[in-house]
Amino acid sequence: MNWSSHTLKTEAGVFALALMLGLTWVGCVELRGGRLRGPDAASYHALATSLLAGKGLQKHDYTGLFRDPWRSLTVRSFRPPLLPLVLAGVYGVAGQRLWVARVVMSVLSAATCVVAMRLARRAFGRRSALATGVLTALYPELVYYAGRLSTETLCTLLVTASLVLLLGAAQATRGVWRWPLAGAMLGLATLARSSVLLFAPVAALWVMVARARKRRAVGEAALLLLGFAVVMAPWWVRNARVHGRFVAATTEGGYTLWVTNNPQADGGGRCFWPPERAEFDGLSEVEIDQAFWRKGMAYIREHPGHFVRLAGAKFVRFWRLWPHASHVGLATALVGGLSFTPVLLLAVWGAIVGWPRWRPWLLFVLLVGYYTAIHMVFMAVTRYRVPIVPCLAVLAGWALVDLLGGRGQVAAARAASQAAEPPVGLSVIIPTYNEEPNIRRSAEGVVSYLRNGHRSWELLVVDDGSLDGTVAIAQELAAAHPQVRVLAHSPNRGKGYAVRQGMLAARGAVRLFLDADYSTPIEECEKLIPPLEGDCHVAIGIRRGPGAHIATKPPIHRYLMGEAYIQLAAWLLGSRVADFNCGFKAFRADAAEQLFRLQHRDDWSFDAEVLALAERLGYRIHQVPVQWAHVQATSKVHPVRDAVKSLLSLLAIRSDLRRGEYGDA
User: Fold this and answer.
1) 96 and 49 in contact (C-beta within 8 Å)?
2) CATH-assigned architecture of domain 423-659
């Protein structure tokens, strides 16, 4: 099974799990009568039926606001339009059957879990995607609100999809269309829930910070905002025609600002009308909204201390570990607390360990910070944080990967090892597999040279499951020289795996690997180290150009295969590297740590993978002509088999880069 089919099957499994739970909840709701619960659901249902009746997007509201307690006003922009449009479409096909609408919302909620998996894969790689998918599929609030016919379900899906598109646009090498598409998705999210409105400029700010080419980033941010405006434009035009004035999102914002910032406000979600009823008589929908904006802003200016206290109370309410039992019932509050608390704690840990991948990390922090800030000013209840739950689940999924297996144990072991031993100036890594004829000559040549030329060094022989006497020879050398370490594992995994283990176990400020056949002698490192002491991150040996010397030429078929591989890699990966295959490469410690954590190919295509990642991450690569000799006796290249493998490997690397498999790269 290839990786793509495995991913699709995993996503299908998570989708099926989430949908099963959602349909189970729909069945429970129907068994309890299937009635609409809460004023918001009733409001959106009324708007949908109004659309079906040909009356447009309108309903009666503001009852009790005027001096006449029975008077109401027909409002046309009080709620965002997307959910009523979706419900109207469902009702138009299936009739006004609420259970059908709940099933559709459950499908959208299950789709959110799949989108969250793709977000996790783009941000932190495939290992965190499954954990994220399971967390979102099992998260009770996502299931619960799908049965409530609330905007949270639709908004959550669209916000999560917009994050996927933003990271995809940032990671893609071409395709400027991705930026307006991401903006369009944010526009749809705003049409689902107006609180998303101001996140579009925040996302544009992220683009300008995260992108390396700042001039180009300005254009990309502009394209993002253009896509947002194109989607919002029909709503803006419609509102201008209906009201004769510009309405950015809805006419509910003014009331929401005032009701949470006035003398009677306590930071909760209580709704009430002001005592001064006469001032609203005769006002239109937009004028009422503007009047509430003025009252709310005036109170904030005149009572800044109370506003700050209210903001603090809203912060606590927004991040409350469980919803109020008086609002949702004790059982629902208990389930909410038991599910949200571990996700929040894991998300905090994920944010701590995930910051090195700072581009997606910053996007997540901006979204969470934006939602927190907006609800510290306006109304804050626990359900308003549902759209950021997938973001928290991605961070929590990365934390689980860190804590349960993969990264955490390796990082802890490496940290303990490095804490116990002082760092060195140069680490040399020799990957081996059945290199008994070569390893003694190679390792002794490295030791002899480094003992005479470097004050602090180490040699790591990383054996990849050899079946001959390679390990015994290496251990004999380690017993004689304390600077030599042997890392042996079994079974055979591939050269890429061996080099990765050596690079991550090394302690050197500069980390160099060379082939065990000693095709490039260690003395050539003097050409690679000086650039790394300057502004370069990676220095590689190449077998062409002035200064290169080929002591023993390879057979013609080997030469042609190598040249074809270089040209093919440059074309498929968009690389400017002149020679991928020379087994003589050095890295600064910080670059080695990041590159070999991201790199995951175990075969010998890892060279192209690492260098493509380095270029993606903006690392400076210095290419140095070196001495090289072909060693036929121990060559393990099979012309036909390895030619096919080379092509498939390059295509896989290209696909991984485009899919965001490497997270931040």
Assistant:
1) yes
2) Alpha-Beta Complex (3.90)
